[in-house]
Every structure is written in structure tokens, then in C-alpha cells.
Specification:
- The protein has about 230 residues and is an alpha/beta fold.
- Helix content is about 30%, strand content about 20%.
- Strands 1-2-4-3-5-6-7-8 form an eight-stranded mixed beta sheet, sandwiched between helices.
- The chain is globular.
Length: about 230
């Protein structure tokens, strides 16, 4: 899991990258929660998502948005962070020119950025959004949503009420040729305390059912590698 430095739009971007052995392995980009509320690429949910893709045979990248960790710059209310994500995806594609497909995953603020990136980059085949903050940010840009995906939400989330996410899911599900797999995790709060294993099981199953993998994917391992 080498450290990498990416040239971003506002300076250096600090990242972690796993390169899959298969030459045409799919790629995945994982985005972290709000930088001004302690969000980093080392967040336990972000790390768990990252490991799910790694175990399923993806070349996988996670990174710190501007102003976080060793990434240069300062918080830019989402606009700059979207540019950071686009630069990270460019880097990922440069090192994987023959990738069979591309996925994006994000947690909370990272889910919002990931869905915006999905709208701008047609090569993204599917998405995983964990606790998308539908009560805080405007998701009306998903008209239409270009890809199907998985949305996970804790039913005890006091930061992002499940009702706001349900409204978003209902809106997306009514779009033609789009299938949203919406899973509510019982007992989970916004940070998925004591529920990361359940999240991993659902994410791993979704990737296994929907990813176009080249060669044999590694066996799944539930609940491993979270922090």
C-alpha cells in the first residue's frame, strides 16, 4: 500500500494506492468525509471501503482532500474538493490505462463529491454512497443519474436523517434504467460505530454481484482491516 503524491489543482495531494495484479483490473476511487469535521482518508469507514475494493481485485486509491494531512491548499466548500477528486481519478486512470471499469465510493461529504464526479465522468460505471448528506447539500444535479449503485444509511443517524436519504433514493429509483440498492443498517449512527462489519458485508456483496472483474477475485473477508 504505497504512499503516493499527486499533483492537484491546488498543490500536492497525499494518497494511498493499491495496484491490482491483473492487467485490466477495474479501478476504484474512495472519498473521505468533511475535512472541517475531522474527515481524512484514514477514517474507519473510508478504510473499510478501500479494503473491500482491494480484496475484490480493484486497483484502488484513497486520498486526502486539500488542506488535510499532507495535502496542500485549504477547504473550498466542495468546489475545490471536486477538482481534487477529478485529479485523483486522472492519476488513477494514467496508471491503469487498460482498466475494465471504474467505480467511485464516498462517505458523507465524500459521497456528495463522489456523486458530482459521477455526473462529470462517464467512465464511472457504478457508485457506493455511505450516508450521503441529502439534508445538507443539494443533490438535484442527479437528473438524470447516469449509473446504478449502492446507498447505505444507518437507521440511527442523527446527522443525516434516514428520511432525507429515502427521499433521494426514491427520486433516483424513478429514473429510467437506474437501479438503486438502498440498505438501512439497523442500530448504525452516522459514524457506523460497532456496525462497520455489517457495512463491509453489504459492500463486499454488492461489489461481488455487480463488478466486471478480470480473472478471479480474492476471497472476501468480512470485517477485516477496519480502523
Amino acid at each position: 500500500m504505497p504512499d503516493v503524491i499527486i499533483n492537484g489543482p491546488d498543490g500536492r495531494i497525499e494518497a494511498r494506492y493499491h495496484h491490482a495484479r491483473a492487467g485490466a483490473a477495474p479501478t476504484a476511487l474512495v472519498l473521505h468525509p468533511h475535512p472541517q469535521h475531522g474527515g481524512t482518508m484514514h477514517n474507519k469507514v473510508v478504510y473499510a471501503l478501500y479494503q473491500c475494493f482491494v480484496r475484490r481485485g480493484f486497483s484502488t486509491l484513497r486520498f486526502n482532500f486539500r488542506g488535510v494531512g499532507r495535502s496542500q491548499g485549504s477547504f473550498d466548500r466542495g468546489e475545490g474538493e471536486l477538482s481534487d477528486a477529478a485529479s485523483a481519478l486522472d492519476w488513477l486512470q494514467t496508471y491503469n490505462p487498460n482498466a475494465g471499469s471504474c467505480w467511485v465510493a464516498g462517505f458523507s461529504f465524500g459521497a456528495w463529491i463522489g456523486m458530482q464526479l459521477l455526473m462529470r465522468r462517464p467512465e464511472i460505471e457504478s457508485f457506493i454512497s455511505v450516508a450521503p448528506p441529502a439534508n445538507m447539500y443539494d443533490f438535484t444535479f442527479l437528473a438524470p443519474c447516469p449509473s446504478s449503485g449502492l446507498i447505505l444509511q444507518g437507521d440511527q443517524d442523527s446527522v443525516v436523517p434516514v428520511e432525507s436519504v429515502q427521499k433521494l433514493v426514491t427520486k433516483l429509483s424513478h429514473q429510467r434504467d437506474i437501479k438503486i440498492d438502498f440498505r438501512k443498517i439497523p442500530g448504525a449512527d452516522h459514524y457506523f460505530a460497532d456496525r462497520v462489519d455489517t457495512l463491509v458485508t453489504l459492500v463486499d456483496g454488492y461489489i461481488g454481484d455487480h463488478a466486471r472483474l478480470t480473472g478471479k477475485a480474492p476471497a472476501s473477508s468480512q470485517g477485516r482491516g477496519t480502523r
